[in-house]
Amino acid sequence: MANLKTTFAGLKLKNPVIISSSGLTDTPDKIKQLENAGAAAVVLKSVFEEQIHAQTGTLHGYGSPEADDYLNTYVRSHMLDAHISLLKETKKHCTIPVIASINCYSDQEWTNFAVLMEQAGADALEINILALQTEKNYIPGSFEQRHLNILRRVKKEVKIPVIMKLGNNFTNPVTLIDQLYANGADAVVLFNRLYQPDIDIDRLTIGSTDVMSQPGELASRLRWTAIASAAIPQLDYAISGGVHNGKCLAKSILAGAAAAEVCTAVYRHGTPVIATMLDELSQWMDNKGFDTLAQYKGKLNAQVAGDINPFERTQFMKYYSEHHE
Fold first, then answer.
1. CA 165 to CA 218: how far, in whole Å?
2. What are φ and ψ of residue 305, in 5° steps?
3. Of 27, 47, 126, 282, whose CB count within 10 A is highest?
4. Burial class (CB in 10 A: 0-12, 13-18, 19+), 63
């Protein structure tokens, strides 16, 4: 029977399925159910600095700046305490690794939150710096530099593994990943998903599209994981987005990932889908004669693709011609 154990960011996992930060991971009971269903690790629902400021920003007009500051500090502390409590309670009842997730936009808060998460017992920290760069006077490269600056500050303050979850809006993710590795990142997750707006032409309003991932999103993750894992093989990779079944897990590992973050599949099919995915992966490995993930991890990444690298191809050429009548 296939051995599904893997290592990601220094964490020893019983299999490559990590449940990504979401409403699935916002209570200890839910996380325990995920563990019982076969999940190898979880990323806690993120602490969003933006949400904290949105809450505290409404608390004004109580007669004095001192009163406003006191109430804002109280609300911020209460929200952080709730997240710390979630982390501590989860660690009490679960044996799988628990990864804390923080999403900040001010430089100081990154280190403050990171220290709190480590003190609360997090096994690792996932940093999410997802943002669009839309300023007319934007200086090229400054967003990438911000990732490096934040990583350096956090690494100075914590000893637990630091995982960088990247958005897919970079010109060249490989250059950034190489710099992240040089500055101490323990792993990279490709990719986070931007909020996607939509326009309602009947109501003339702005809303959002489906927040769930689609299977087609896996392709871009496979492309960049295959390219990056060939260029910077010392770093661990996880794929996030479009991983809906065991075949997707196999593709992710063949591209060079050590694990995959899963969310939508569990929302749509419930926790039993985890066992189904792992069974599919195990059966595929048995059919191919693979005993461990290490035997085929990166087997089809860009390094082994040959001189004509399909992962770097941008035009359809013969691939399109195969489908025309």
1. 16
2. -80, -15
3. 126
4. exposed
Pull the structure tokens for residue 104: 């900040």
AA letter at 99: I
| CA 184/CA 205 separation, integer angstroms | 44
CA distance 150 to 105: 10
Task: For residues 59 and 81, give the distance between their C-alpha atoms in angstroms, rounded to a whole number.
Answer: 19
- Measure the CA–CA gap between 206 and 317, rounded to whole angstroms: 38
Say if strands 162-166 and 187-190 run parallel, antiparallel, or are unpaired: parallel
Q: Confidence band (pLDDT; 50, 70, 90) for 233?
A: very high
Q: Which among 202, 278, 295 has a CA at the least distance from the CA of 243? A: 278
What sign for the dihedral angle of Cα 204, 207, 212, 215? positive
Site of tokens 């979630």: 86
Domains of the chain with bracketed CATH? 6-321 (3.20.20.70)
pTM of the model: 0.88
Is residue 84 classed as helix, strand or coil in its secondary structure?
A: helix
Lowest mean pLDDT among 115-124, 127-136, 227-236: 127-136
Residue 191, preceding peptide bond in cis (omega within 30° of 0): yes
Alpha-carbon distance of 63 to 45, in angstroms, equals: 35
CA 130 to chain centre: 11
Closest CA to 170 of 197, 141, 127, 196: 141
Measured distance CA(25)–CA(48) in Å, rounded = 15
The strand ranges marked E within 111-174 are 124-128, 162-166
Nearest CA among 279, 260, 314 for reference residue 8: 260
R_g (Cα) of the chain, nearest Å: 21
DSSP-assigned beta bridge partners for residue 58: none
